[in-house]
Amino acid sequence: MNNHGGLTLSAVTGSRTYQVVEYATAEVRETLSMAAAGSMVRVWLEPLGSRGDAWEAVDVEGDVEVPRPAAGVLEQPLRH
Question: Can you give the pLDDT at residue 40?
Fold first, then answer.
């Protein structure tokens, strides 16, 4: 998701992309904002007729892959 809330989704086949610019609920937006780049997410979309080829994310089915934090102090083994 970019700084303006826009999101580009690609079909599993890679043959089509969808420019998501609106979200039905804050929960849908937050769920998608936490998804890791390249993860597979099942999203229900509705076309926004007044915005060219733009889409609204209506619902997210199942869990999304959340990016793991980079290795850091908290993930290092404790040394005595």
Answer: 86
